[in-house]
Design goal:
The chain is α+β, with helices and mostly antiparallel strands. It has one domain: minor pseudopilin epsh domain (minor pseudopilin epsh fold). It has one helix spanning about 10-60; strands at about 65-70, 75-80, 85-90, 95-100, 105-110, 120-125, 130-135, 140-145. The strands form two sheets. A four-stranded antiparallel β-sheet has the order 3-2-1-5, with helices on one face. Keywords: Competence, Membrane, Transmembrane, Transmembrane helix. This is ComG operon protein 4. It comes from Bacillus methanolicus (strain MGA3 / ATCC 53907).
Length: about 150
């Protein structure tokens, strides 16, 4: 631009807009993997805390606590089995798919904190599959990344 001119040329404006579009499109592609990572971390952290809370609730109130995943609606519900009082009802992201494996999507913690059934449920987040396994006995559980199906 010359000193005596008061504006920008069309070529200068197009050049700046092109650079802006390139930088913004690169940013969009870099953010998506972080979004899935954050959703995965948030889901597993909340689910683990909620299941431990349900187990402690069952022990402290000496009642059965029912855990039910509503896979089609993308939320899970934890409630007192005797009076039906909802303890926790939590939605999760639509990129997360929960399906039954050897364990149905509905189970109970007994009054002493043990689980009434044992087995695994599968959780798919993006292209990754995780297996949440509930052990027989003390009601313990763990999550592993599934390498095969």
């Amino acid at each position: 631009m010359r000193k005596n001119e008061k504006g920008f040329t069309l070529i200068e404006i197009l050049f700046v807009l092109t650079l802006f579009l390139i930088v913004s499109s690169i940013t969009v592609f870099m953010v998506k993997p972080h979004y899935e990572f954050i959703e995965k971390t948030l889901f597993f952290t909340c689910l683990e805390a909620d299941l431990y809370y349900a187990q402690q609730y069952a022990i402290s109130h000496e009642r059965q606590v029912h855990v039910n995943f509503m896979a089609d609606s993308h939320y899970y519900k934890i409630h007192d089995y005797v009076n039906g009082k909802i303890i926790i009802e939590r939605p999760y992201s639509k990129i997360i798919k929960v399906r039954e494996g050897s364990l149905k999507l509905s189970f109970k913690f007994t009054y002493d904190g043990r689980i009434d059934r044992f087995g695994s449920i599968y959780i798919t987040i993006g292209k990754e599959i995780y297996r949440m396994t509930f052990l027989l006995g003390e009601g313990r559980f763990y999550v592993t990344k599934d390498t095969k199906e």
